[in-house]
Each structure stands twice: as C-alpha cells, then as structure tokens.
Amino acid sequence: MKKFTINSINRISFLLLFFVAGALSSCKEEDPTAPAEAKAAPVIEAVRSMNPAKADSTFTQSTLGSTIVIKGQNLENTRTITFNGYNASFNTAYASDNYVIVRIPELTPTVATAANVPNKLVVGNSKGEAVYDFTVLPPVPLIEAMSNEFVKAGQTLTLYGKYFYFVKDVTFPGGVKGTNVTASPDGLSLTVTVPSGVDPSKGDVVVTSESGRSVANARTRLYSVGMVGNFDDKNPFGWGINPATNITNTAPGITALDGKFALISMALPGGYGWSNDKVINLADYNGAQIFPTQPANMYNAEDPIANFEARMEVAVTNTASLNGLQLQVMTQEATDKELTANVNLKDFVRSTDGKWYTVAVPLANLANGSTKLAKYGDLLKGNKKGEKHYRAVIVNTNAADVPATIAIDNMRIVNTVAR
Fold first, then answer.
1. Burial status of residue 33 (CB atoms within 10 A of its CB: 0-12, 13-18, 19 or more)
2. Range scoring the smallest mean pLDDT among 21-25, 57-61, 113-117, 294-298
3. Which positions fall inside the IPT/TIG domain (predicted)?
4. Of 103, 137, 171, which one is at a domain's C-terminal end?
C-alpha cells in the first residue's frame, strides 16, 4: 500500500480546492441571471412612448404608471433605473444596446408628494451612470368639490381636490374656458374666473393639466335642475323662519346669489336645542309634488336613493367659529317617521366672510333608527297624507349658544349619477 506524506496530502488538497474554485467560477459566469459586465457607461439620448402612434416623438415628461422606451447607447447590461431616486423594476429581456423599456412606478416621488423632487431619470450599469432631465407628472387632476355650484360669469369659483399641478386650463359646460386660473402650491385647490357663455346643462367642469383631463364625478356639475325652493319663483314654503322678515335679499356681510334667500340670524341654542327660527321647512300641504320628477332620466322613481343628494348654497357671517354647527336635512316617509341626516358645516363652508358655498347631504344617510329610503320613489311618496317635506335645520352641537348669521338658497335634489 502506498503511503501518503503530509506534503503529498497538502498538494492533493490544494489541487481539489483549485478545481472546486474553478468549477464555482465557471458556474457564476454561466448564471443567466447575473448582470453582465458592460463595455461602457450608459448614454441616454431620448425618451419615447410605447404608443406606436407616438413612437417618433421624444419627450421629457410622463405620468405615473406610464411605460416608456429609453433610447441611447450601452443599455443592454443596464443594472438600475431610477426616477427621482426611486428604483424601477424592468425586464432585462427588453433591454438592447440602444433601447430599454421600463414602467414608471406608481410610488415615484412627484411634486404632489415631495416639493423638491430632482426630476431626474438615472440609468446605471457596471461602468457608470447616465443622468437625464425627466419630469414625472402626478396623476390627472381630481375635483372633489366646487365652492359654489350656482356661480355666475365674472365670479370666482374655487375647486377643491388633488393634483392641481401644471394646469393648462379650466373648461366650463358649453366648452368655454375660464380665466385667471391659479392653483395653490400644494395642488389641493384652484381658483378660476367664470367666463360668459356657460351652459350648466351641457356637461361638467374639467381641469386639464400636463397629466391629462379631470374625470366627471358627482362634484363636477354646476346647478341646472332639481330645484325644490329658491325663495323667488319656486317657493313651497311650509313653516319655520318668519317669511315676512327672514326671506330676504339682503343681510349684513352677505350678497344675494340671485334674488331672495332664507336667513337664519340668531343665537343658535346649544346642546341641540330647538327653535323654529333656525328651521326652513318646504312643503305643499295640498299634496302637490315638490320634489323634481323631470328630466325623467335624472329623476327615475326606481333609481336607488344612493344616487341622490340634497344640496343648497350656504353663506355664514357674524360667528366666531363653525365648530359644532351642522346642517340637518329632514323628510317624512310613508309612515310619518321623520328621517334625518346631518353634515358638519365646516366640511363645506370654508370661511365665515359671507361667501357662498355648496353643501351636499347624501339622501342615503336619511334615517330614523333602521328606517331608510330605498329608492327615489320613496321620497316622492311623502307621508301618510301624501305631503312632501324638505327641511333644513341648523343644529348647534356645542353646549353653549352660538350667535351666527346664516343664509340658505337653492334647496334642491341632485342626481349625482345620471349625466
């Protein structure tokens, strides 16, 4: 038997380690997932759209979620792509020496989430990085509320929502564009002067930005239909405030929208206290229908009550605070139960300087215990006598009385779905 010395064993161990290391090195080189060595640092020449119709166009900005084509050199072995410092995932199968395809991540920082974004696209490989000026745009504008749906030409309308950045224009129903468009730095509001020629029956208010056009929703239509009482030519007044003194066209610090309005001016009783002077009840005691039924496509008796809102314009002055003040809407259903729904005034009325604001109360929230309306036809039926009631009440949830002057106009029912 051949004997092995210590030296010979060491030589054999060394050879085994050498071959194992060589095998591992060979496996690493053959690993298809391992990033290959680049021949040179990447170069970005242009960014293009994946849309074939725009394939020849280059651009320096795009929206979150867009898929783009980066054109340049030495892109085949790209290891990283970032937008404003945020890493984007990409498939190396779609990378060649001159092109790489990537989708802009939804979480990429934009001016909507970070005030000082660098607006840079960076592509990196093993040899270095290429930096390209590129703006990632926030989502399209979103209108969540309009200050006053009964606004007129020459007046200022404030839109509330999100993503009012890089705004190009504001288009009103009828296709006319507003002027003096100014968006807040945080993109949460926008003011615009209403142009002449607005036709509320012809569509929605639309904000167009570099990101695209805002989408129509329940808060983008100006007043046109659904009036129950405007205290002028449509006024089925029932009871509450004194019509001789509190249906008026003037009040301290408040300018009428159009003709007369209802006025509540008093120390609102605290602790949910009651007073007829803070109530506006519209009703026709002869049983006439006060709720809208036309146009039929907007006021279909079979439509779910969730499609509808009670709306009115409200202006407030002469009060220290809106905290704890609510607007309650009430109606009576077929068994005479009073169904109520409340909203906080400060969620809609954003100042106490007499400026008018639209307040909306979902009719699906009307309830008395478990009793609710199911469809619009339930509202049209009225109570046991067939009387229809549409009541607005100012409720003070504070313990102490709260002095306030509150004007209410254009009490109406709006279908938020039918267009």
1. exposed
2. 21-25
3. 58-134
4. 137
The two three-digit tokens of residue 325, written as one number: 């003040």
User: Beta strand pairing status for 261-268 and 227-229?
Assistant: unpaired
Domain identity same for 181 and 262: no
Q: Is residue 117 domain-resident?
A: yes
- Indicate left, alpha or beta for 382 from its phi (over 0: left) and psi (-120 to 50: alpha): left
Contact by Cβ (8 Å): 170, 181 = yes
Tell me: do 131 and 187 sit in the same domain: no
pTM tops 0.70, yes or no: yes
**Token pair in block for residue 381:** 């039926």
Is the model's pLDDT at 215 over the cut of 80?
yes
Does 29 reside within a domain?
Answer: no
**Nearest C-alpha neighbor of 337 from the set 383, 375, 306:** 383
pLDDT, one tens digit per residue, over 216-256 is 999 999 998 999 999 999 999 999 999 999 999 999 999 99
Q: Is 26 within the bounds of a domain?
A: no
Query: Are both 260 and 357 inside the same structural domain?
Result: yes
Nearest alpha-carbon partner for 200 in 246, 234, 258, 153: 153
CB atoms under 10 Å from CB of 256, counted, come to 17
pLDDT in tens, 22-63: 433 333 344 455 557 889 999 999 999 887 766 667 889 999
pLDDT in tens, 146-179: 999 999 999 999 999 999 999 999 999 999 999 9
Predicted pLDDT at 38? 85
Residues 102, 151, single domain; the answer is no
Q: Is 30 helix (H, G, I), strand (E, B) or coil?
A: helix
CA distance 367 to 341: 7
* Judgement on whether residues 178 and 234 belong to the same structural domain of the protein: no
Nearest to 121 by CA among 84, 148, 96: 84
Neighbouring-strand partners of residue 169: 208
Of residues 227, 222, 315, 340, the one with CA closest to residue 263: 315
Q: Determine the 3-state secondary structure of 392 from DSSP.
A: strand
Q: Supply the range of the domain harboring residue 61.
A: 43-137
Residue 361 is predicted with a pLDDT of 98
HSE value, Cβ hemisphere, 13 Å, CA-based, for 94: 13
Same domain, 371 and 405: yes
Q: Are residues 276 and 363 in the same domain?
A: yes
Average pLDDT in the chain: 91
pLDDT value of residue 51? 76
Q: For residue 359, is it within any domain?
A: yes
Instruction: Please tell me whether residues 312 and 331 are part of one structural domain.
Output: yes
